[in-house]
């Protein structure tokens, strides 16, 4: 049975706190000036894990992802206690992938060995840029040197590590990005997440952009930067396996594949989302985003779930399409038909294939092409119509 055929089950744990809020970030992250009561939060995580496991018992956990916020602000003992709670209520695969997102500051890098001892075996570092001016503009609290030092510590502490970079930054040229990307690949070993800077409503960058004080690359430059990303990474042996993620063969982030392949996952912690299969029905869950409100809910009710929607066959199939076409491996239309009760329109498939946006393998598997990825939303909308 291939990796793609196994029923994966992931657990996502959200640590919602950051030292400061980055001006481009619209994630559920919060700054607290008083120390966070980690003992109380651990008890709440364990309680929500217990309640969730009672809803979906008997699962084998194939991946765990500690995301945020900034999980590397947690003490290693806190991480260990969360992992112990998962192991107490579900069976955990022997080869489980346990990823922790970390800031590449020297303070947080000193905890890496503690995280390794606690059971983390993969770290994802929010480097974001390899030059100090860009890091300052992005509101990051580390320097490029400090980030590279943290990467070097990660290399000694973990078998697997990855880091993120943001491109299409103000004043960035394809030449500058090519040089930065080559430097990143020389440091990255097996995996890179490369995101185009997007201006999200409600962030400080949104206001600056609207006022003309933040100039991002025009559409043609942004497309050139995207093309450079694909070409350089493919040439260096880290092709895109998902629209923003690049890896050597076998080094893909297994937890993120759970999302993109439409598998099941539990969402634990403030603002965490989950997809759980209960009595043959796919439930889309989301918890209270506000950390202290989530805490009180869990202490009272055993969980912080605010929404628990049963997805109908159409919604589930559309989500499978939307997520699966992000992957270079594409989707099996037979699975779409099994979920939705209808087949994808062969005329639309033929039209998109003629336009060069998708390919269809001999076994019928659909994949988005290199030229289709920049217009992925339109391709998905066309197929789902």
TrEMBL record:
Keywords: 4Fe-4S, Chaperone, Cytoplasm, Heme, Iron, Iron-sulfur, Metal-binding, S-adenosyl-L-methionine. Its main location: cytoplasm. It is found in: Cytoplasm. It holds the Pfam family Radical_SAM. The keyword Hydrolase does not apply. Residues 3-239 form the Radical SAM core domain. InterPro entries: Coproporphyrinogen-III_oxidase, Elp3/MiaA/NifB-like_rSAM, HemN_C, HemW-like, rSAM, rSAM_sf. PANTHER family: COPROPORPHYRINIGEN III OXIDASE, RADICAL S-ADENOSYL METHIONINE DOMAIN-CONTAINING PROTEIN 1, MITOCHONDRIAL. Belongs to the anaerobic coproporphyrinogen-III oxidase family. HemW subfamily. Probably acts as a heme chaperone, transferring heme to an unknown acceptor. Binds one molecule of heme per monomer, possibly covalently. Binds 1 [4Fe-4S] cluster. The cluster is coordinated with 3 cysteines and an exchangeable S-adenosyl-L-methionine. This is Heme chaperone HemW.
């Amino acid at each position: 049975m291939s990796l793609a055929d196994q029923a994966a089950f992931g657990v996502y744990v959200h640590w919602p706190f950051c030292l400061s809020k980055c001006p481009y970030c619209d994630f559920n992250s919060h700054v607290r000036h008083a120390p966070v009561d980690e003992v109380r939060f651990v008890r709440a995580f364990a309680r929500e894990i217990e309640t969730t496991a009672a809803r979906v018992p008997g699962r084998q956990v194939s991946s765990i992802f500690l995301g945020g916020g900034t999980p590397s602000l947690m003490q290693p003992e806190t991480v260990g206690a969360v992992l112990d709670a998962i192991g107490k209520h579900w069976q955990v695969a022997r080869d489980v992938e346990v990823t922790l997102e970390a800031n590449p500051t020297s303070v947080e890098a000193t905890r890496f060995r503690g995280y390794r001892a606690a059971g983390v075996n993969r770290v994802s570092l929010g480097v974001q840029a390899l030059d100090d001016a860009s890091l300052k503009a992005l509101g990051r609290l580390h320097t490029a040197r400090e980030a590279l030092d943290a990467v070097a510590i990660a290399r000694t502490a973990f078998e697997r590590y990855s880091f993120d970079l943001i491109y299409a930054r103000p004043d960035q040229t394809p030449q500058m990005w090519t040089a930065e990307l080559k430097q990143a690949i020389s440091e990255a070993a097996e995996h890179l997440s490369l995101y185009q800077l997007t201006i999200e409503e409600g962030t400080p960058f949104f206001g600056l952009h609207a006022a003309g004080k933040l100039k991002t690359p025009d559409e043609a430059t942004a497309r050139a930067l995207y093309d450079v990303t694909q070409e350089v990474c493919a040439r260096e042996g880290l092709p895109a396996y998902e629209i923003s993620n690049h890896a050597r063969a076998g080094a893909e982030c297994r937890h993120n594949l759970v999302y993109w392949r439409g598998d099941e996952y539990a969402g634990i912690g403030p603002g965490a989302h989950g997809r759980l299969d209960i009595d043959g029905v796919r439930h889309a869950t989301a918890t209270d985003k506000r950390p202290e409100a989530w805490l009180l809910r869990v202490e009272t009710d055993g969980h912080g779930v605010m929404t628990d929607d049963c997805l109908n066959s159409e919604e589930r199939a559309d989500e499978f399409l939307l997520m699966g076409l992000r992957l270079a491996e594409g989707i099996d239309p037979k699975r779409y038909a099994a979920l939705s009760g209808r087949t994808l329109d062969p005329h639309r498939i033929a039209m998109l294939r003629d336009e060069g946006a998708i390919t269809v393998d001999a076994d019928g598997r659909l994949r988005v092409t290199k030229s289709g990825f920049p217009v992925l939303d339109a391709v998905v909308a066309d197929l789902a119509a």
